[in-house]
Amino acid sequence: MDRTVAIIGAxxxxxxxxxGAVWVYQNGRNNQFAQCSSSTVASGAAAIGGPFELVREDxxxxxxxxxxxxxxxxxxxxxxxxxxxxxxxxxNAEALDMIQSDGYDAQMAxxxxxxxxxxxxxxxxxxxxxxxxxxxxxxxxxxxxxxxxAYKTYYKKEENGDPEYYLVDHSTFTYLVxxxxxxxxxxxRDDSPQxxxxxVECYADAAGYGSS
Length: 212
What we know:
By secondary structure, this protein is an alpha+beta fold. The protein has a single domain, classed as 3-Layer(aba) Sandwich (Glutaredoxin), CATH 3.40.30.10. Helices cover 39% and strands 19% of the residues. It is built from six helices and nine strands. It has helices at 3-27, 64-67, 84-101, 120-130, 141-150, 193-207, and strands at residues 53-56, 61-63, 72-77, 107-112, 134-138, 155-157, 168-170, 174-178, 182-187. The strands form two sheets. It has a seven-stranded mixed β-sheet with strand order 2-1-5-4-3-8-9. A hairpin with a 4-residue loop joins strand 1 and strand 2. Helix 3 (84-101) crosses helix 6 (193-207). The longest helix has 25 residues, at 3-27.
């Protein structure tokens, strides 16, 4: 991934997150999750997240409400990604195993930013390899773009690349989304499975999705 683009993307997202956090604090909604925040976001920042319509790995067209039925670790990437996507999602899967072992009902979701190659079959193969409780989502270029814009993610197809084996530069944040609440937190690449576990469980407890 181009480091300059990645840094710029991180700065842009940080600015958006900061703006959203200000809105949250002014609106007084931070109290519920204040003790859980590991970033500048205290609660569902209005600037990040929103409705989308995509195609699930089983071929069914679904909305965000169909997907986020439990605390969800959401990642935007692509199945042909040679390194970052498998590593990040394997890390998230390790965190999810810990969370589920602690009795929490949680899941992962993967939205491709490469709908040209990522068919429902391709996405299903990828998610089944990563984790049993991982939902794969694809769609038309327009549907994918709308979902990406809702979560303020960045992606760009490699110019003049091989038409079959091209790369896609993209942001690498993992988002925590709660049912009926929306986006509440994001995780960076250097966050450990243990820190993700602790943060997700804190938010789940605060939102009333405690362990069984």
